[in-house]
Amino acid sequence: MPQPLSRRSVLALGAAGLATLAAPARAQDFAPGLLYAVGQKFDKSFNEGAFTGAERFKEATGIAYRDYLPASTAQFEQAVAALLRRGVTDLALIGYYYAAPLASLAPKHPAVRFTLVDAVVEAPNVQSVTFKEQEGAFLVGMLAAMASRTGTVGFIGALDIPLIRKFIAGFQQGARHARPDIGLLVNFVGTTPAAFNDPTTGAEVAKAQFQRGADVVFAGAGVSNFGIFAAAKDAGRFAIGVDSNQNHLYPGTILTSMLKRVDLAVERAFGEGRSGAWTPGSRALGLAERGVDYALDDNNRALVTPAMRDRLEEARAAIIQGHIRVRDAA
């Protein structure tokens, strides 16, 4: 026969119940998901950064995530529906081109927490994470100018959109900060998002810039960067990577990489969703937030002299302290 509970037992059970209510959502109440940008999952760049952040979260918490790699932007609703059918409660979306469709879709799923990386959508269940790309680009622009022997550097973007213009603006300001007389070239791989996945054209654009005198090119073109890097190696010129640390792809050719910490954005979104700290709204990550940076490792350390690094660190501090104001494209 069950024994009646003592007053002490009742109090203990009540306290335990209150603790449960106050605790973060349990793993079974939380299911993170990741919708990659169109392209390759292991692109050594944007998508792989998102993957790294999700994997780091999984390793730290033991909570698995669901993911989806679309073949085109037209698959957005199909991809989201597939992830939600799998029980996703917190969905990180990687790519500026998801902004418009997410603005229409988010109100239909008010219980889902969406985190959009690289664009802004205002909705009560959307958190938008953008980056101050111009600040990171300023530093690699300085390095490009300091490393150039011809006095001309170039930028190769995927296509001409406001996001890419932020990279260009920072790169130009940084290059001229280090060397006011530097020559600057700007070209694009294409005119549609497919330009992020066209290494052949990327290589041709790079060759054209080399023929015009550029000896350092900043590649901001996704998977198209692979063609730019190969062209730089063949021509004996320098290239600069983007988003993830791409120095290891062509040691001795890649001068540095401008880091854009998509991994931190994804890891933080999942962590906040799990703990109950996730909130809608917008946040922009720059040098002060360690959201952007330049990469220095064994693959490029010999290319970046102590004097160059000192100037870069001085500029970093000045930007964070507000003594150097880096304009974006606007």
From TrEMBL:
Annotated GO CC locations: plasma membrane
Give the keywords, sorted: Cell membrane, Lipoprotein, Membrane, Signal
Signal peptide segment: 1-27
In this chain the ABC transporter substrate-binding protein PnrA-like domain maps to 37-317
Instruction: List where in the cell it is found.
Output: Cell membrane
What's the main place this protein lives?
membrane
Question: Which InterPro entries does the UniProt record give?
Answer: BMP_lipoprotein, Peripla_BP_I, PnrA-like, TAT_signal
Q: Does the keyword Signal apply?
A: yes
Whether Cell membrane counts among this entry's keywords is: yes
SUPFAM superfamilies assigned to the protein according to its UniProt record, in alphabetical order = Periplasmic binding protein-like I
Q: How does it sit in the membrane?
A: Lipid-anchor
UniProt family annotation = Belongs to the BMP lipoprotein family.
This chain belongs to the protein called BMP family ABC transporter substrate-binding protein
- Phylogenetic classification of the source organism: Bacteria, Pseudomonadati, Pseudomonadota, Alphaproteobacteria, Rhodospirillales
